[in-house]
Description:
Blueprint: H1 16-21, E1 26-34, E2 37-41, E3 49-51, H2 52-65, E4 71-77, H3 81-91, H4 108-114, E5 118-122, E6 132-134, H5 135-138, E7 139-141, E8 165-167
Parallel strand pairs: 1-4, 4-5, 5-6, 7-8
Antiparallel strand pairs: 1-2, 2-3
Amino acid sequence: SNADAEWLAPNQQHGIAKQLEDGIRALMLDTMEWNSEPYLCHGYCELGAQPLAAGLQEIEDFFVANPNEVVLIIFQDGLSVETTVAVMDEVGLTERVWSDADGTFPTLQEMIDQGTRLVVTAESSGPPPSWYHHAWSLIQDTPYSFSSAEDFECTPYRGSTENPLLLMNHWLGTPLPT
């Protein structure tokens, strides 16, 4: 959800393309079915929505224009794996996905060299397919419900401290996230 697209109560100022342009390389995308179609929405699609294919196309366009960049998606998955995979196939992203075949997380350069520059995870679902990872098997995160910056803490919340990636949450809910 973003203010630039005039969503109500947005979590971000900018949409996907601008965030990627600004250097963001990890995106949490909330997927939902709305009007019998797959969408990106946050909470209620009536507050703001983007067709899932359009949002994922922005990521594919970024990859085409930036051949040495790696991106991670965490789907807050309100859609089935099959629906999400079908849309990813449609826009060409499944050709770029990394799969944890041997249990070793690659370096960024290895991912670039292998053409597997997209890490796909989901909060609830997981494999199959092998590249559709359960988020908390790769990521450890910190708590995310704070009313002031002084309340921020880095205690483990979800995922194992042995996971190769760390997500440090840093937004305030006063009462809406900022």
